[in-house]
Design a protein that fits this description.
mainly beta; Pectate Lyase C-like; 29-stranded parallel β-sheet; about 45% strand; elongated; Glyco_hydro_28
Length: about 425
């Protein structure tokens, strides 16, 4: 390969910088060629087509198009500049995809068709669409990533065995930096719809995520060990957590989004495994939660295996609409009775603000703060919280609080447990 000139290296460095900003800001509708031209040069020509139909894919919903997508990725990844993979209108049956980097280009997948996950579980080693070790990546369009979960949900045994075999997650980003997912729909995942692990600078904007409220373990967006994740203007209605924030995650911003049905916007579970890291700097603002089992929930195992901290959370301007348990801190979480109920917690929860939380609770218990005896929650604030139970007249709205230390400001007397 010929050695790059100094000017060429400077041009490519400038391009990488612009593309990083382009992805992080989710400006995925701008023409790729124009974006690169502003950086001083065109992208290189890929080794082959980037339109999956030109690579043999058929949008008939029956013909396996996996190989065509993998070829398009290979062609784009080996090029330079901004490369756009095209998935045009149509129904494309897809098996497991390993979209691996590192790449010498920045890649946009323009999704206007529908990807259908095969119901043959033998086609998956682990997940369905997995993007790994990639910088500067985007998916945008008006298409759908359909896991076709109803074909396999009956094989999910996690309600009986907590150490069950996990069905394939739909869209997984592992070790991805500067990414945006915008405009598309994810539906009926076999397990989680979107899973972010060890990612940095990810924007999810104007995405719809949907599955029946009774579908098993169909979390909307799960993240762990990730930094600077932004979720805006996104609608999530699923059978498990709408958004799940796992250990090692920091700087999360959720704004202008809707949840329901589902199990709410959750932090945790924390402390299940050894060597988990802190969860810090979480902000959930201007959101609506409707018809969910939980609203805003923080949960950790009663016999936690890690020493970690969950701190600096702000929940502000949240509307609850018929939510069973709107505000929950549960440090005695013990699903399937798998833990020692006399365990000493090693998870510290501190500096948690619930502010301007209004609406209705489907049970009398609108606020639950259940912290451990040995390590009480510290710095919890209830500010301008107005939640009303909408059930029978003789059951009044109430708060159930244990070992939580903080203050209540402008909160109804029955909820002011701090």
């Amino acid at each position: 390969m010929a050695r790059a000139t100094a000017a060429g290296r400077r041009s490519w460095a400038a391009a990488r910088c612009i593309v990083a900003l382009y992805c992080a800001a989710a400006l995925t509708t701008a023409p790729a060629a124009a974006t690169y031209a502003a950086a001083g040069g065109p992208p290189s020509v890929p080794a082959g087509p980037l339109d999956i139909v030109l690579l043999g894919a058929k949008g008939d919903g029956k013909t396996d198009a996996t190989e065509a997508v993998q070829k398009a990725w290979k062609n784009a990844c080996a090029a330079t500049g901004v490369q756009k993979i095209i998935i045009p209108p149509g129904n494309f049956l897809i098996g497991a995809l390993a979209l691996e980097g590192p790449c010498t280009s920045s890649i946009i997948i323009r999704l206007d068709g529908n990807l259908l996950g095969t119901g043959d579980l033998n086609a998956y080693k682990k997940n369905w669409i997995e993007v790994m070790h990639v910088d500067n990546f985007a998916i945008n369009g008006h298409g759908t990533i359909d896991g076709q979960g109803p074909l396999v949900w009956q094989k999910n045994q996690c309600n009986k065995n907590y150490n069950c075999k996990i069905l394939p997650n739909s869209l997984v980003l592992d070790y991805v930096t500067n990414a945006s997912i915008r405009g598309v729909t994810l539906k009926n995942a076999k397990f989680f719809h979107m899973n972010l692990f060890n990612c940095k600078n990810v924007v999810v904007d104007k995405v719809n995520i949907t599955a029946p409220g009774d579908s098993p373990n169909t979390d909307g967006i799960h993240m762990g060990d990730s930094d600077n994740i932004t979720i805006t203007n996104t609608n999530i209605g699923v059978g498990d957590d709408c958004i799940s924030i796992g250990p090692g995650t920091q700087r999360v911003r959720v704004h202008g989004s809707r949840c329901g049905p589902g199990h709410g916007i959750s932090v945790g579970s924390l402390g299940r495994y050894k060597d988990e890291k802190n969860v810090e700097d979480i902000q959930v603002t201007n959101c609506t939660i409707k018809g969910a089992t939980n609203g805003l929930r923080i949960k950790s195992y009663e016999d936690s295996k890690s020493v970690l901290k969950a701190s600096r959370f702000v929940y502000d301007q949240i509307v609850m609409d018929n939510v069973s348990f709107p505000i929950v801190i549960d440090q005695k979480y013990c699903p399937n009775n798998i833990c020692n109920k006399n365990g000493q917690s090693t998870v510290t929860i501190q500096d948690i603000v619930f502010k301007n939380i209004v609406g209705t609770s489907a049970t009398p218990e609108a606020v639950t703060l259940n912290c451990p005896n040995n390590l009480p929650c510290q710095g919890v604030q209830l500010v301008n919280v107005n939640l009303k139970y909408v059930g029978a007249r003789n059951n009044k709205t109430m708060a159930v609080c244990h070992n939580a230390v903080g203050k209540s400001t402008n909160v109804a007397k029955e909820l002011a447990c701090l």
